[in-house]
Design goal:
2 copies of one chain form a homodimer.
Chain A lengths: L3 H15 L7 E2 L1 H8 L3 H8 L12 E2 H11 L6 E6 L3 H7 L2 H5 L2 E8 L8 E2 L2 E5 L3 H7 L4 E4 L3 H13 L4 E4 L12 E4 L3 H13 L4
Parallel strand pairs in A: 3-4, 3-7, 4-6, 7-8, 8-9
Antiparallel strand pairs in A: 1-2, 5-6
Helix pairs in contact in A: 1-4, 2-3
The structure holds nicotinamide-adenine-dinucleotide (2 copies).
Chain lengths: 206, 206
């Protein structure tokens, strides 16, 4: 088993090599470390979890590394998802190229606001929350993204779980309860700002 | 020095105890662990970095723990910030209660879109990017948030650094270059989805 903190970094290495221009065939732990603010020693240590061997003074072969990490991180597996709450954050996620490239397949958008229901966002039409249960069952949806206000988040979560969703990606600032067998990840982007400010105020790196 | 990964978790403990109703005076490592999906052993280990002692069978005193963590995480220090790019993501951040509560003080919003410049978002008026340099100098701004398209991000970053900003919080999917002495944190929320999908597909926890 690869530890989560290593998987998190492996994904950063993947998205870096994936953004390299086609003529770059080798990437060193130095190059990866500098671009991502990670020590080259740690990069080398992380790479021991991969079967791709580096070459002294050249580094890792980009095409092989990209393909290996793509499989390891399951980026080649598409997952049907719905986004509930098509406000500012929900619409930013629905439009985000990065999610499309990582094979999150958004198949449905839901909201309760009569002014939003029936309008289009990208190439999807926003549906009313009342239609979500049947939609999830008919479209093999496994992941639900929650971008509604905090007071509605648990209710939306229960609806998603009740319809058979197995993974919940939550952005509302509230600790959700899910039954065993349902995987929950809550984002809390304030955490990023808190760590940035600590660096700034302590004017050093840990 | 407390390791970053521990600080990340301490912030999650803080935001959990900060959201507890006032009549709850004690919180156990069990309670914290269950709410946040972290093992109680790890919670207890993290708490050894804090000077707050737990009591057997009762746990940690909530008011003392909250105040201690607030200081440790520098949540009581306000930082003047600007957001550059007031589209979907930028406006979601400008309106997010969580950032206000963590003492990020957004004092300026900037964009280049003539349809947005001059309109209001919350209680601020969106200004044109051309006014940002002087605004940063006159308003003691130390942090810049980048929510513009990837192709404009480095140029916006250089403008912020040139005006004297010392911390950059970047959401554009591109590896930015900053000089020494400027602290950079890049968010990559796709990473969260990638880890969630791995849990789902491997149907287990690491
Ligand atoms: N985690 C983070 O980092 C972060 C950052 C910004 C915002 N947020 C949170 O994300 C959520 C959305 O923020 P926003 O700025 O997009 O808010 P918003 O008000 O722009 O959008 C919320 C949307 O949810 C819809 N909605 C409300 N109740 C609903 C329900 N029961 N079912 C379906 N749709 C419902 C509304 O009609 C609206 O379209 C909020 O909880 C906010 O606190 C989190
Ligand atoms: N990191 C993440 O997790 C994440 C998630 C969603 C979106 N994004 C990224 O965040 C950025 C914003 O996404 P969005 O959905 O809000 O896009 P958007 O198109 O809704 O907003 C972009 C805004 O930036 C403005 N802008 C463009 N060039 C500018 C410049 N040089 N100076 C100032 N303002 C400028 C535009 O006028 C617009 O208002 C994009 O780079 C997107 O890829 C990141």
């Amino acid at each position: 088993m690869i530890p989560w903190v290593v998987l998190e970094r492996l994904y950063l290495y993947y998205s870096y090599v994936d953004s390299l221009p086609p003529e770059i065939n080798w990437v060193s732990s130095q190059m990866l470390g500098e671009a991502l603010g990670i020590s080259p020693d740690l990069v080398r240590k992380d790479m021991t979890y991969c079967e791709i061997k580096g070459k002294p003074r050249q580094g890792y072969p980009v095409p092989e590394l990209r393909n290996y990490l793509k499989k390891l991180l399951k980026l080649d597996t598409s997952v049907n998802s719905v986004i509930v709450g098509t406000g500012r954050l929900g619409s930013a996620l629905a439009n985000y190229e990065g999610l499309k490239k990582s094979n999150m397949h958004v198949v449905g958008l839901f909201d309760t606001d009569p002014k939003k229901v029936g309008t289009t966002l990208g190439d999807l039409t926003i549906m009313h929350l009342g239609k979500m249960h049947d939609f999830i069952k008919e479209n093999d949806v496994v992941c639900g993204v929650i971008t509604v206000p905090a007071h509605s988040a648990q209710q939306v979560c229960d609806l998603l779980v009740g319809a058979g969703v197995k993974a919940i990606w939550n952005f509302a600032p509230v600790a959700l309860k899910v039954p065993d067998g349902v995987y929950l990840r809550s984002e809390n982007i304030v955490q990023g700002f808190v760590l940035l400010r600590i660096s700034l105020l302590e004017a050093n790196q840990h």
